[in-house]
Amino acid sequence: MIQLKDFSTKPPKEADKKKFKKEMKDVLEELADLQYLMNAEGKHSVLVVLQGMDASGKDGITKKVFGVCMPSGISVKSFKKPTDEEFAHDFLWRVHKEVPQKGMLKIFNRSHYEDVLIQRVHKWISEERVDKRIAAINAFEDLLAFDNNTTVLKFYLHLSKEQQEIELQQRLDEREKNWKHNANDWKERKHWDEYMRCYEDLINRCTTPWHIIPMDERWYGQYLIAQKVVETLKGLNMSFPIIEEEKA
């Protein structure tokens, strides 16, 4: 049974920031090469799911980690409040059409998990529907894996409540971050304990595992995610396709 309180939101005390930042350059170079190879081979795809509380670092990861990737082989989808058309379909309808095709790396900045988090926290759906949606999500991710060679990498960005307050306040105090300010983030913060309960329950009930990433120090979390993506891509045992010469 995973309990979030057992996981630190900070790097280990012995972690050397300069050393990790130096190593990060090599990891990102390898990530760029492997993503290029996956796109060229066209047999696999990777879906990266970033979930966490407001100001947990989703945008920074997208920029700092995946900014090295070949643009034609990667895309990002940020899920917001469903439109009227999306509300008129099942909750996974808008998600399924966004999953990556073979050869592509896709990032979900927030995801289908919003539909069993925010809606559950605010009691907009019943616990029975939560159960059915979690079962549907597990089946959905299994389908992506066996039917399309899609590896689903899910990262829970583990931020402390104290650090979130600092990050949200910076959006008010620093001009270059003002554009990210959303008064609703402060309102959602009032439900912190309930969000933690729902995240913890979700993490324990998913068949595709979550990676819990400490995010109080952005550099450390970004390094861990980059390293995990590289490790996953290496495990696909990819190779460049060989094109046979056409006979005259």
Task: Walk me through this protein's architecture.
Helix content is 47%, strand content 13%. By secondary structure, the chain is α/β, with parallel strands linked by helices. It has one domain: 3-Layer(aba) Sandwich (Rossmann fold), CATH 3.40.50. The protein is globular.
Give the tags.
single chain; 248 residues; alpha/beta; Rossmann fold; 5-stranded parallel beta sheet; 10 helices; 47% helix; globular
Describe what is shown at a glance.
This protein is 47% helix and 13% strand. It is of the alpha/beta class and 248 residues long.
Topology of this protein?
Layout: H1 17-41, E1 45-52, H2 58-64, E2 74-78, H3 84-87, H4 93-96, E3 105-109, H5 118-121, H6 127-148, E4 150-158, H7 161-173, H8 183-189, H9 192-205, E5 210-214, H10 218-234
Parallel strand pairs: 1-3, 1-4, 2-3, 4-5
Morphology call: globular
Helix vs. strand class: alpha/beta
Q: State the total count of DSSP E strands.
A: 5
**Gap from first CA to last CA:** 64 Å
Radius of gyration computed on alpha carbons: 19 Å
Proportion of residues in extended strands = 5-15%
Question: Helix fraction?
Answer: 40-55%
Query: Can you give the mean pLDDT?
Result: 95
CATH superfamily: P-loop containing nucleotide triphosphate hydrolases
Count of helices? 10
CATH architecture label: 3-Layer(aba) Sandwich
Sheet with most strands: strand arrangement: 2-3-1-4-5
Largest sheet: 5 strands, parallel
Poorly predicted segments: none
| Whole-number total of structural domains | 1
Q: What's the SSE pattern?
A: HEHEHHEHHEHHHEH
CATH top level is Alpha Beta
CATH topology: Rossmann fold
